Amino acid sequence: MSLLANVVVGIVALIHVYILVLEMFLWDKPVGLRAFGQTQAAATASKVLAANQGLYNGFLAAGLLWGLSLGAQGTAVKVFFLGCVLVAGLYGAATASRKILFVQALPAAVGLGLLFLS
User: Fold this and answer.
1) Which of 13, 7, 18 is closest to 81 using CA atoms?
2) Degrees to nearest 5, angle at CA 39 with 28 and 91
3) What are phi and psi of 6, to 5 degrees?
4) How do residues 83-93 score in pLDDT, each as one tens digit?
5) CB–CB of 115/13 below 8 Å?
6) Of the residues 70, 72, 112, 117, which has the fewest C-beta atoms closer than 10 A?
7) pLDDT tens across 29-86, in order?
8) Dihedral of the alpha carbons of 79, 84, 87, 93, in degrees to the nearest 10
């Protein structure tokens, strides 16, 4: 169960690295416009804010990778950062897009569940 938990934590970290790339570098490019349902004008106007948001997603990924690098001693770190991802995902789903519930919150919840079972 511990290996499966760590695989899910790694997947959540990779999701957040991908979100970082989308928000920091591709926000106003075609792939970013499609991913976030933005118009070019809206994306151009909010590019700086999106880059800031992307940086925070990078911090979440870094924390999860840090927890993984600590092995068994990193459980508390993984729980903390998965909890942060879960809260961010729930807030995002309630305020921005329901899709965030499935892309961000659900994988974090699965990871937390698996950590608690291992």
Assistant:
1) 13
2) 85
3) -65, -35
4) 999 999 999 99
5) no
6) 72
7) 999 999 999 999 999 999 999 999 999 999 999 999 999 999 999 999 999 999 999 9
8) -120
